[in-house]
Here is the input.
Amino acid sequence: MNRRLFLKATLGGAYLPKLLQPQSFDLVLRGGSVIDGSGAPARIADVGITGVRISGVGDLSGATATRSLDVSGLTVAPGFIDVHTHSEDELITNPKAESKIRQGVTTEILGMDGGSYKPAEFADKLMELERGIAVNAGSFVGQGTLRGLVLAMSDRAATPAEIGQMQQHAATALRQGAMGISSGLEYTPGGFASAEEIGELCRVMAGSSGLYATHMRNEDDGVVGAVEEAITIAGRGGVGLHISHLKCQGQRNYGKFDAIVSLMEDAEARGVSVSFDRYPYVAYATTLANMMPLWSREGGTGMFIERLQNPETWQRIRQATADKVALLGSWDTVMITSVTLEKNKPLQGKTIAEIVKETGDDPFLYVRDLIIEENNRVQMVGFGMGEETTATILAHPKCMPASDGSALATYGDLSSGNPHPRSYGTFARVLSKYVRDMKIMSLEEAIRKMTSLPAERFGIEERGRLAEGYYADIAVFDPATVNDDATFAKPHQYASGFEAVFVNGKPVLEKGARSQELPGMVLRGKVTPAV
Here is the structure.
């Protein structure tokens, strides 16, 4: 009896058609240059999608598909994971995540720099996102948010009982899906906390997969000490450390990265794992008030403005601000990006030096008066980093490109102001400037650093790879034409070169055009609090 007759006789023919029929997919991306996210070399292959998952990678020429898309000549990669974002409100305002999708981002991590949804509303906010967003999204809980709930804007040490309250708030957020705890130690009120206090707070995650992600206390003259402090905090808390937007700001600090790497290697040897991210620009973005010392901002906006108006304090503030400007070089390096009053809108996109050249004002007094007039609602970018050091940081094997930006759009409420172009161009800029033009790393390595590396570090399961069984988050682009078109002068411009983007198997961008699909999922952490 031949095999066919044997199968028919023994199985009654019940399974024969299934065994013999060719594999079938909902969608097959055919003939692309597949970079799977692992760091392995590119290869020509097909990618099959069934439902929300990848169900085949390889030669699928014999397979049937409901729909096929010819992607020959293009690179097919896992969707990019942006591990440092501030889209908490933006994804609710416009769930299409336009500026991120159009540069291949399929996952955003929120709640960074110490600011996040409040623990009491964490679950509700995640459920609100779950109603429909274009990207996947998870969130950290902010140490600044936690401290504010317990100590408001007080610049003093927390008592053991108050630390216990913060731990309980953190545990609430972690049980509801927070992926870790973030801090922003150049901001209030988080910056009023000591290393010991933050380490004790992090102990709520001890022994778990939760990370401590930090905007460190200093990123310029004191950057080495700030890294040491961050490592101390993570060690005390028994957690892994992730340093946000690592930089050596100010020309005299450009050479400090080697010392920072040595500190991280020593920490690893002692059992404290360390990773970091960085945006691919030499300018940072923050509030204009951040040019002024932390002590001047204690108590919130009202007390800050009082100090700016008080002759006994504003002169002290002026001196500290002058030191910060000297670090950057001059007021030419400080650009106004966002104001609220209509009369001040023409300032957006201009440096302080340009403005006072026209007005004849003293730069500090002009900045002081602007902050007072705008009730401390002024955003800026500062050109404080070196190109060579930026490239060196980005090329490090543990560095993950991240935007530190938001999901914006060229229309509607999210098209206002003059934001940092990183919200529109981060990932395209890595691929164009640093991979194609400067060649500081291979395309395969860049993709690894944008996909599987962040997925593994942040505990994002079954994403970050083009592999069977993984979620079908996919970016298709032309490496020869990909470009970040957003500039500091004209930031509201989408990246170019992206042909298609899929999130959980659904096309959100195809042939360069946006669909109406909102297939993103909310990603919840799996940290079991220790309290």
User: Anything to note?
Assistant: The chain has a mean pLDDT of 95. The domain at 78-282+385-514 is CATH 3.20.20.140 (TIM Barrel). Residues 51 and 505 are 6 Å apart (CA to CA).
